[in-house]
């Protein structure tokens, strides 16, 4: 059973526990049982009040069951689901017996909607306790009364912030916002384990409060403070509210480029409810929920969610040895970034560089990363200091015999990589794994210098390491399964979303990015302004424009990669002239890190201007655009189709194991538009035939760079073939 | 050369001490034997070959007063001086007969502690000790004077000293409140500024934010949690109810009142407070009814917490001092020692969730060291920081699960029987001047052993930082 209740004195304690899952979700079964239990509670005269609590340590209710929504066949069906939820929570809200939601662990989506329908909320101050409405991240909206109740509870601005960003709110913040009424401290060990005892304690306190509410000793609504009264007064003016709707709307349009329907629908539902009353509001909510559930954007985002969950698992088994000490060679941006995400997980981390200044810079980066967390109050200064005590900075290989894994992040030059590999192998113990954080050099070429190629693997991180979620792990034919399992385990510990791909020039991510960047260079050469290029890419859904992306990656790195991959793959990787990039590098325009690239970067300034000198460079390599393939839309598809074609080719060649990892890699590593769900889902939803048709048109002008690969052609021929079922 | 001479002399002094110790141990055995018929207690002495016997000669303390009462206008060293003077008077100790003085305190008065020599002079010279006696201050939160005493025990056991005065003081009527870091920085720069322009510039940089002061808090550095808050969580973790806590607090006050009225608190000395009356009694003892106790609201976790002002120890002013010596020195000087200070341990655990569980960890450890069991102990004195903390410790010691999971034992530690536990009140009722409580516990154990005719006593205390202390004390043969 998912739900049952027991009566303690005059309080019914309703316990939620999905027997088939680690988390509780509002599945059909759960809702049905909940309704039955609540009917009994309401009918039982001995019961004066109720406490709603989960028996799972880290989870109250994590949300609605996504599969339940996905298995619907029409918008109407989803609307009906939403209306059932609304009805259920309306009964909870109007319950004659006060219901106290006792929240420990995640209280998200439908779980939060359930909680805010209750008369009173008590949450544990645990780190695991988070409240939020993440529906927007799945292209949906809170469809069980959330858009109607939240604004009343926390006010319009906070409600919009919660529903439009979907961010998690910690318990103490939720208390301040008025989202929960009372906090309970998590307990340490007593006569039971801390987790068990904390749940018991939460229940005891909640029962006390439930009785207090019945006895009128505890007010359900707290007296409003002066600020809140002022806010309410201000909000009572229609023009103020309209101004808010307008501001929020334009903000959403600016950030989403209108590519995401859910945020706009959320605004609509809230507005309808506030301005036209609850009947219209609830109706708008359920109907919009139904419509959103059927959009391709929602499908794409839900696909990414499932993919992300799948890529947070280790499919290679438990490694023989846990990595307890990890060494990183090179304290540059990457190396220090890897150190930061490792040391804060309690792994002893050795950061080695060749110069004192390089090491000092790297250690400072780690310190700054952690110190910023203290400033945001994510960790205390004490935690920061004790985390940092796990970091050792050094210039030599002393102590490397105790190291379980080495990740090198030295300069991208095969000779230097070989040199450090040999140096490392001379000092480490036999079990130590050597991982290379290269972005393009084939791992088997690096492993060629190794005495034990089974212990060599690629771990491609993305910059900035503490922000980018993806880790691309590259295995060669010789990499052992245990080495892979160990690398995945380390990556998971670092909190990464992991794809494991085959070896080859550029692996998967760099290989997809290179042709797109080559096309971007050509577009620039054809006279398109970098700002215009950025606008074209961002309006397609990329979070970062192509020109800005090149600056972020580094023009020198881009030139390096373009040249290497150009050699490996030939004219298919052509398009823009590599000399453009090389000339820029010669002029010192290496991108953001050198202050100049396509743009000029000035510290402290948020707006960036196009580098005026870049015009001369582009003039030198000017190409005449062909009007037949140079409309804005054509330029967008020229960029995207090369990306997508290369991704499909990676699957065709076996570099990728499945389309899912391809989508995750493209979205989380390269910023492929999340609303499209990744290159493979894009082909499915856009239609392989339509894409091929466009590519053929470009091919006629530019040649083989646009020749669709065989797998793409197969899908174009047979429309029943889909990458995602 | 002189040091060589000295060490030879020390070497010589060891052999008579052996003789004394051996003689003494046989004496105490015969004492046990003679008492066997009367008391049915046949307990061996804890003396160990190769380990010097250290004895408590005397222990005194000023009356412990609620902060902000009669001591309000004093300085911490005034209280310390009173305790030290009291010790000198009661023992008739010659002023130069002390080898070393160690004093404990938690919140340090900047005026007297910023320069150590000055601080110690204030306390010791002022109290009439010779200026040839070296001294230092120790701090270890609520077990500071425990640390002062055991440091002394260590010096005696190592043969470095024969006679030590240890003690502690806390003065909560006045605590140092600092300027903010910003302001301190400005003021320090100001003292270095050379020109008027620089000075004016610095003065001009002072903003409102500079003026907000920094207050010392009874909070953990590592977790920023106040101790009362932690105590409340600890009580909740062990399922200690509000009623249990209130009952224990009432017990403490009732027993303290009884002991005070019966004149059992002989360690208290009278103290003429400058400008005020003579103080000779603790003033925090208040026997309340359970109904009165129940009326109070939670003090830390509001509103559903269980720790209240009435079931917590209160902010206290007070000082204590003890004279400890090697046994042979004490006997040579004609003293009649009160007790032996035997095995002691310090423990440390998680400062967040087990902040106040020191006694639970320390008790089994010190018993093991001494080769005793819980039932061998006649007198228990536990530091009562909070009633909830004491009850939580008792429940932890009574839990098989806790013993197995956290103490690495096969089963529970077992709890001290209440009829032997804190019979003359405790920190809840007598008060708790952080730096002074340890000496009170030791002296009380010694006095109770004498009064009740027991042989072994055990004291235990918790302290900030998740630390704890436990010590076994053996009665000196009467």
UniProtKB/TrEMBL annotation, chain A:
Belongs to the enoyl-CoA hydratase/isomerase family. In the central section; belongs to the 3-hydroxyacyl-CoA dehydrogenase family. The record marks 113, 135 as: Important for long-chain enoyl-CoA hydratase activity. GO terms for biological process: fatty acid beta-oxidation. Its EC number is 1.1.1.211, 4.2.1.17. Residues 326-503 form the 3-hydroxyacyl-CoA dehydrogenase NAD binding domain. GO terms for molecular function: enoyl-CoA hydratase activity; long-chain (3S)-3-hydroxyacyl-CoA dehydrogenase (NAD+) activity; NAD+ binding; transferase activity. It comes from Cyclopterus lumpus. The record marks 460 as: Important for hydroxyacyl-coenzyme A dehydrogenase activity. It holds the Pfam family 3HCDH. Heterotetramer of 2 alpha/HADHA and 2 beta/HADHB subunits; forms the mitochondrial trifunctional enzyme. Also purified as higher order heterooligomers including a 4 alpha/HADHA and 4 beta/HADHB heterooligomer which physiological significance remains unclear. The mitochondrial trifunctional enzyme interacts with MTLN. PROSITE patterns: 3HCDH, ENOYL_COA_HYDRATASE. The keyword Membrane applies. The active site is at 472 (for hydroxyacyl-coenzyme a dehydrogenase activity). InterPro entries: 3-OHacyl-CoA_DH_CS, 3-OHacyl-CoA_DH_NAD-bd, 3HC_DH_C, 6-PGluconate_DH-like_C_sf, ClpP/crotonase-like_dom_sf, Enoyl-CoA_hyd/isom_CS, Enoyl-CoA_hydra/iso, Fa_ox_alpha_mit. It is found in: Mitochondrion inner membrane. Signal peptide: none annotated. Pathway: Lipid metabolism; fatty acid beta-oxidation. Residues 506-601 form the 3-hydroxyacyl-CoA dehydrogenase C-terminal domain. GO terms for cellular component: mitochondrial fatty acid beta-oxidation multienzyme complex; mitochondrial inner membrane. It catalyses: (3S)-hydroxytetradecanoyl-CoA + NAD(+) = 3-oxotetradecanoyl-CoA + NADH + H(+); a (3S)-3-hydroxyacyl-CoA = a (2E)-enoyl-CoA + H2O; 1'-[1,2-di-(9Z,12Z-octadecadienoyl)-sn-glycero-3-phospho]-3'-[1-(9Z,12Z-octadecadienoyl)-sn-glycero-3-phospho]-glycerol + hexadecanoyl-CoA = 1'-[1,2-di-(9Z,12Z-octadecadienoyl)-sn-glycero-3-phospho]-3'-[1-(9Z,12Z-octadecadienoyl)-2-hexadecanoyl-sn-glycero-3-phospho]-glycerol + CoA; (3S)-3-hydroxydodecanoyl-CoA = (2E)-dodecenoyl-CoA + H2O. Keywords: Acetylation, Fatty acid metabolism, Lipid metabolism, Lyase, Membrane, Methylation, Mitochondrion, Mitochondrion inner membrane, Multifunctional enzyme, NAD, Oxidoreductase, Phosphoprotein, Transferase, Transit peptide. This is Trifunctional enzyme subunit alpha, mitochondrial.
TrEMBL record, chain B:
InterPro entries: Thiolase, Thiolase-like, Thiolase_acyl_enz_int_AS, Thiolase_AS, Thiolase_C, Thiolase_CS, Thiolase_N. Keywords: Acetylation, Acyltransferase, Endoplasmic reticulum, Fatty acid metabolism, Lipid metabolism, Membrane, Mitochondrion, Mitochondrion inner membrane, Mitochondrion outer membrane, Transferase, Transit peptide. It holds the Pfam family Thiolase_N. Transmembrane segments: none annotated. It is found in: Endoplasmic reticulum; Mitochondrion inner membrane; Mitochondrion outer membrane. Its EC number is 2.3.1.155, 2.3.1.16. Gene3D superfamilies: 3.40.47.10. One of its GO terms (biological process) is fatty acid beta-oxidation. Residues 54-328 form the Thiolase N-terminal domain. SUPFAM superfamilies: Thiolase-like (SSF53901). Pathway: Lipid metabolism; fatty acid beta-oxidation. Its main location: endoplasmic reticulum. GO terms for molecular function: acetyl-CoA C-acyltransferase activity; acetyl-CoA C-myristoyltransferase activity. The keyword Transferase applies. GO terms for cellular component: endoplasmic reticulum; mitochondrial fatty acid beta-oxidation multienzyme complex; mitochondrial inner membrane; mitochondrial outer membrane. Heterotetramer of 2 alpha/HADHA and 2 beta/HADHB subunits; forms the mitochondrial trifunctional enzyme. Also purified as higher order heterooligomers including a 4 alpha/HADHA and 4 beta/HADHB heterooligomer which physiological significance remains unclear. The mitochondrial trifunctional enzyme interacts with MTLN. Interacts with RSAD2/viperin. Belongs to the thiolase-like superfamily. Thiolase family. Mitochondrial trifunctional enzyme catalyzes the last three of the four reactions of the mitochondrial beta-oxidation pathway. The mitochondrial beta-oxidation pathway is the major energy-producing process in tissues and is performed through four consecutive reactions breaking down fatty acids into acetyl-CoA. Among the enzymes involved in this pathway, the trifunctional enzyme exhibits specificity for long-chain fatty acids. This is Trifunctional enzyme subunit beta, mitochondrial. It comes from Cyclopterus lumpus (Lumpsucker). The lineage of its organism: Eukaryota, Metazoa, Chordata, Craniata, Vertebrata.
């Amino acid at each position: 059973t998912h739900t049952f209740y027991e009566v303690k004195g005059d309080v019914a304690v309703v316990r939620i526990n999905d027997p088939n899952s680690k988390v509780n979700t509002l599945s059909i079964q759960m809702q049905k049982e909940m309704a039955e239990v609540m009917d009994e509670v309401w009918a039982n005269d001995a019961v004066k009040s109720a406490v709603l609590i989960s028996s799972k340590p880290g989870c109250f209710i994590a949300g609605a069951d996504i599969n339940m929504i996905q298995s619907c066949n029409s918008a109407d069906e989803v609307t009906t689901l939403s209306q059932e939820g609304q009805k259920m929570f309306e009964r909870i809200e109007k319950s004659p017996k006060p219901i106290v939601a006792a929240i420990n662990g995640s209280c998200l989506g439908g779980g939060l909607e359930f909680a805010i329908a209750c008369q009173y909320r008590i949450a544990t101050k645990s780190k695991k306790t988070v409240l939020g409405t993440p529906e927007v991240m799945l292209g949906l909206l809170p469809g069980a009364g959330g858009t109607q109740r939240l604004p009343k509870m926390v006010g319009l601005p906070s409600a919009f912030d919660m529903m439009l960003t979907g961010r998690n709110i910690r318990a103490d913040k939720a208390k301040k916002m008025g989202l929960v009424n009372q906090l309970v401290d998590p307990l340490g060990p007593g006569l039971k384990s801390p987790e068990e005892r904390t749940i018991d304690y939460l229940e005891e306190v909640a029962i006390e409060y439930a009785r207090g509410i019945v006895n009128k000793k505890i007010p359900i609504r707290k007296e409003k403070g002066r600020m809140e009264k002022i806010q309410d007064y201000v909000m009572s003016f229609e023009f103020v509210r309209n101004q808010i709707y307008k501001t929020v709307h334009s903000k959403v349009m600016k950030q989403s480029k209108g590519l995401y329907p859910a945020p706009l629908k959320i605004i609509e539902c809230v507005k309808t409810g506030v301005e036209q009353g609850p009947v219209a509001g609830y109706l708008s909510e359920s109907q919009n929920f139904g419509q959103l559930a059927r959009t391709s954007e929602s499908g794409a985002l839900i696909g990414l969610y499932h993919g992300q969950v799948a890529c947070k698992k280790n499919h290679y088994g438990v490694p023989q040895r846990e990595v307890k000490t990890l060494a990183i060679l090179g304290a540059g941006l990457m190396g220090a970034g890897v150190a930061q995400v490792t040391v804060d997980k309690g792994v002893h981390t050795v950061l080695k560089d060749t110069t004192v200044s390089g090491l000092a810079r790297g250690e400072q980066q780690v310190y700054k990363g952690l110190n910023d967390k203290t400033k945001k109050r994510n960790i205390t200064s004490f935690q920061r200091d004790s985390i940092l005590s796990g970091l050792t900075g050094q210039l030599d290989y002393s102590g490397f015999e105790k190291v379980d894994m080495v990740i090198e992040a030295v300069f991208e030059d095969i000779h230097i990589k070989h040199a450090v590999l040999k140096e490392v192998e001379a000092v480490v113990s036999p079990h130590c794994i050597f991982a290379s954080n290269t972005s393009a050099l084939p791992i088997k070429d690096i492993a060629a210098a190794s005495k034990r190629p089974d212990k060599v693997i690629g771990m491609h991180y993305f910059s900035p390491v503490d922000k980018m979620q993806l880790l691309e792990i590259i295995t060669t034919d010789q990499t052992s399964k245990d080495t892979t399992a160990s690398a995945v385990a380390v990556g998971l510990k670092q909190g990464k979303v992991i794809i494991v791909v085959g070896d080859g020039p550029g692996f998967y991510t760099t290989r997809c990015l290179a042709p797109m960047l080559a096309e971007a260079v050509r577009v620039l050469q054809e006279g398109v302004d970098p700002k215009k290029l950025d606008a074209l890419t961002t309006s397609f859904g990329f979070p970062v424009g192509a020109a800005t992306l090149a600056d972020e990656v580094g023009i020198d790195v881009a030139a390096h990669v373009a040249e290497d991959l150009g050699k490996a793959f030939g004219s298919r990787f052509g398009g823009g002239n590599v000399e453009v990039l090389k000339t820029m590098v010669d002029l010192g325009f290496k991108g953001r890190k050198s202050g100049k690239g396509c743009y000029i970067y000035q510290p402290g300034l948020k707006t960036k201007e196009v580098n005026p000198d870049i015009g001369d460079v582009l003039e030198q390599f000017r190409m005449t655009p062909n009007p037949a393939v140079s409309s804005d839309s054509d330029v967008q598809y020229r960029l995207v189709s090369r990306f997508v074609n290369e991704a499909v080719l990676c699957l065709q060649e076996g570099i990728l194991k499945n389309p899912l990892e391809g989508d995750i890699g493209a979205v989380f590593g390269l910023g492929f538009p999340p609303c499209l769900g990744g290159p493979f889902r894009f082909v499915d939803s856009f239609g392989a035939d339509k894409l091929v048709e466009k590519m053929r048109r470009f091919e006629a002008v530019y040649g083989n760079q646009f020749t669709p690969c065989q797998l793409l052609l197969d899908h174009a021929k047979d429309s029943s073939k889909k990458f995602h079922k | 050369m002189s040091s060589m001479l000295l060490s030879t002399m020390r070497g010589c002094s060891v052999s008579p001490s052996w003789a004394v110790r051996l003689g003494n141990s046989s004496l105490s055995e015969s004492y046990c034997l003679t008492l066997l018929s009367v008391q049915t207690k046949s307990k061996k002495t804890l003396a160990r070959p190769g380990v010097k016997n250290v004895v408590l000669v005397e222990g005194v303390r000023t009356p412990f007063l609620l902060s902000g009462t009669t001591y309000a206008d004093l300085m911490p060293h005034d209280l310390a001086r009173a305790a030290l003077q009291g010790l000198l008077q009661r023992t008739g100790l010659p002023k130069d007969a002390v080898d070393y003085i160690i004093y404990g305190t938690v919140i340090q008065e900047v005026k007297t502690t910023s320069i150590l020599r000055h601080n110690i002079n204030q306390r010791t010279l002022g109290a009439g000790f010779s200026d040839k006696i070296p001294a230092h201050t120790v701090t270890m939160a609520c077990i500071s004077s425990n640390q002062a005493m055991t440091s002394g025990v260590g010096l005696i056991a190592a043969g470095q000293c024969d006679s030590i005065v240890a003690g502690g003081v806390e003065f909560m009527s006045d605590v140092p409140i600092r300027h903010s870091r910003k302001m301190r920085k400005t003021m320090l720069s100001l003292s270095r500024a050379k020109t008027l322009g620089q000075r004016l510039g610095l003065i001009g940089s002072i903003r409102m934010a500079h003026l907000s002061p920094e207050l010392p808090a009874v909070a953990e550095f590592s977790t920023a949690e106040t101790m009362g808050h932690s105590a409340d969580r600890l009580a909740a973790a062990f399922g200690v109810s509000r009623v249990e806590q209130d009952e224990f607090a009432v017990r403490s006050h009732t027993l303290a009142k009884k002991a005070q009225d019966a004149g059992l608190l002989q360690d208290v000395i009278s103290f003429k407070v400058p400008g005020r009356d003579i103080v000779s009694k603790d003033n925090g003892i208040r026997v309340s009814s359970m109904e009165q106790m129940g009326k109070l609201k939670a003090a830390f976790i509001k509103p559903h917490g269980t720790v209240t002002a009435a079931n917590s120890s209160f902010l206290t002013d007070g000082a204590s001092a003890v004279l400890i010596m090697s046994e042979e020195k004490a006997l040579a000087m004609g003293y009649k020692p009160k007790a032996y200070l035997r095995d002691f341990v310090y423990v440390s655990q998680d400062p967040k969730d087990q902040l106040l569980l020191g006694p639970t960890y320390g008790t089994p450890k010190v018993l093991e060291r001494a080769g005793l069991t819980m039932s061998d102990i006649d007198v228990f004195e536990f530091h009562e920081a909070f009633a909830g903390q004491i009850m939580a410790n008792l429940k932890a010691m009574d839990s098989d699960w806790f013993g197995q999971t956290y103490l690495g034992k096969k089963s529970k530690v077992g709890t001290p029987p209440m009829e032997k536990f804190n019979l003359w009140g405790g920190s809840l009722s007598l008060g708790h001047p952080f730096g002074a409580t340890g000496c009170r516990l030791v002296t009380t154990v010694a006095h109770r052993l004498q009064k009740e005719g027991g042989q072994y006593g055990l004291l235990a205390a918790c302290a900030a930082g998740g630390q704890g202390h436990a010590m076994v004390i053996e009665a000196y043969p009467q």
